[in-house]
Amino acid sequence: MNNSIRLLPALLLAFSFNLQPLLAQKGIALANKSANHVERQALVQDVIPLARLANERLAYMKDVAAYKWAKRLPTASARTTIKVGYPPVSTSLPLFVAIEEGLFKEKGLNIESVQYETANQIVDALAAGEIQATSVCADYPWLSLAVEDDEAFRIYAWEILDTLIPFDLILSRPGSGIHTLADLEGKTIATFPGSQLKHYLELILEKALGWMPEVTIIEMAPADQIPALASGKVDALFTLEPMALMAVLQGVGQIVESSPISKYIGGGQPMPAASFALSTTFIKEHSQTAKKFVQAMDKAIRMINKDQEQYRYLYPRFTNITAELAGKIPVTHFTTVRDMDISLFQKEADILFKAGLLERRMEVKKLIYSY
């Protein structure tokens, strides 16, 4: 076999390694039957170093491929451990169910649960890349982040509040003389840490009364709320379950308003109050893992909505809720992206914008995770 025929495979290989500029003219000339023997021999000598280079690159690629196969090096889509931020409250139930029922393991995922005390802390952690996903987290901090960076996260589920399942309540101390919202004039009201409930209370009072009473609103850890109400440190609570039920059972609190969020802010309609989210960076870098995570959480939500009583036993295991209270507190409704009426979320965002709590109006469709 002459040298020109022997070098043709090497020439083709070299072309695949972007050596075209160097080989194009030489390869054509080499294949040209009109070239004389001296010319062809000279071309062969020019092509040999380039063909050797191509063969060396091929050998290197084979070595790398063999090494990766032997070591099973992880790729960008192969991540299986996910850090999930969550508050230790009853509305983190979908996360608890997914862990307890092995739904993440079914997808080949490992979950590292990271506990936070406030929604703002969870949002900040996701934005900083400290966690990849979240359990339930108040909507206002998410929307506030979206005003600054609407590419930071995507929402995959919601907690829905309505008047049929009282979960948010305003309480006063028995004997305080506070029986209506108007009676809160000049009083001190404690609510959960974080910005959302504080702003929501202001909206509730203004919408319910048509004017804004002079009140002092302070953020307070849940564990401190009932003692503060009992001692007179605060006059009222705007709180969530199970704190409301605990206060009433202990004789410390009496109900002034049930479900004020959906009643006054939502106009009597169901209203999303908290969301579950993923880091956009995580979605982009590990799209299949993100999809599997959401599928597991979606399954947990369907299981809860199908039988809300079945998973109450998980509250004491994952939160400070006692077994006695676990059987009494209401279980809110959760919804997935595929089942959600996005107009409700848009309505919530518009209410916050019109109230001056968001610097610009958000089109919430861009914040939704789809798969």
- pLDDT below 50 for ≥5 consecutive residues: which ranges? 1-21, 67-77
User: What's the helical proportion of residues?
Assistant: 40-55%
Element pattern in H and E: HHHEHHEHEEHEEEHEHEHEHEHHHHEH
CATH class of the largest domain: Alpha Beta
Domains, number: 3
Largest sheet: 5 strands, mixed
Distance between the termini: 57 Å
Kindly report the average pLDDT value.
85
Strand content: 15-25%
Number of helices: 16
Strand order of the largest sheet: 8-7-9-6-10
The shape is elongated
Q: What structural class do the secondary elements suggest?
A: alpha/beta
Question: Based on DSSP secondary structure assignment, what is the total number of beta strands?
Answer: 12
CATH superfamily of the largest domain: Periplasmic binding protein-like II
Radius of gyration: 31 Å
Judging by the overall fold, what is the CATH architecture of the largest domain?
A: 3-Layer(aba) Sandwich
The name of the CATH topology of the largest domain is D-Maltodextrin-Binding Protein, domain 2
